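User: Can you predict the 3D structure for this chain?
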Amino acid sequence: MKRLYELIQKNLSFDKVSELFGKQLSKDQLPLITISREKGSGGRPIAHLVAKKLGYPWKVYHEEIVNEIVEKTHLETQLVKEVDEANIPLIDEIVADFFGRRYLNLSGYYKELIKILSTIGHRGHAVIVGRGADYLFPHALKIRIICEMDQRIKWMREFEKITRDEAVRRIDESDKKRIEFVETVFKHDPRKAHHYDLVVRTGTSLSIEDAADLIVRLAKRRFGI
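Assistant: Here is the predicted structure, written as C-alpha cells:
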C-alpha cells in the first residue's frame, strides 16, 4: 500500500499544469489516451511503455490509482487543485453532457469515480487504463488490447506464479466484472470494436513493446506531438 500511495503522489505532482492549459491546446484537443483491455493481455505494461516513450508530462492512471484517489479525499482535493480553477466548470459539463439526468441515479462511488476520471482526463497528457474512460472523452485516442486466451493464461501464470486453473478463474472473473461495470455505468459493451480507434491483439506475433510503439506512433499523428 505504501508503494501505491507513493505512486499516486508522484502521479499528482504536476508542476507545469497551468502552463499546459495556457498553450494552444483547447479543451477538446488536450492529448489523452484511454486503454481498455482484457486481463492478461498486457494492457497495463503497454500503458506504462506508452507514457515512457511519449515522455514528460505523460502519466499513467490505472484502476488501483484511480480507486485510491476516489477513496482518499485529500488526494482528490490535490488533484482538483492541479487543474486551473477557471476550467473546473468544464469538468461538470463533461459529466452532464454524457450522463444527463442518469447521473443522479448512479451510486455515490460511481459519481465520485466519474468526477475523478473527468478531472484526470481534462488536464490531458494522461494514459487512463480501464474504468470506462474511453466513453467519457470523444477526442481521446481510444485503444482496446485483446489477446488469445491461451496466451493470456500463459502470461498470467508467468507473471503471477499461479496454476492454470487459477489463471483461468481470474481471467473469467475479471472479464465478467469489467463487462458488468461498463454496462452498468456507461451502458455499452466494451467488447465491441467500433468503440475504439485501434484494437490491438498481443501475443506471439505482436509483443508488448510492438503494441506500445503502434500506439505512440498513432498518438503522435493524432495530437501533433
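The chain has a mean pLDDT of 77. The beta strands are 32-37, 59-61, 126-129, 141-147, 198-202.
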